Amino acid sequence: MTKAITVPAAEAGLVRVFALSLQAAEAQHLKDNPRAESGPTPQENALGSSTLNSTYVEVFALADLGDMPLSDYLVEGPGVARDALEPDRVKLAQLEGWVMIVYSAAFGGTAQNLTPAPALTLIGTYPQEGVDWSDRVDLSTTSALPYQEDAAPARKKPSDAAMSGRIATAALLVLFALVGLMVWVGS
Question: Which distant-in-sequence residues (6+ apart) come within 8 Å of 45 by Cβ?
Answer without folding.
Answer: 117
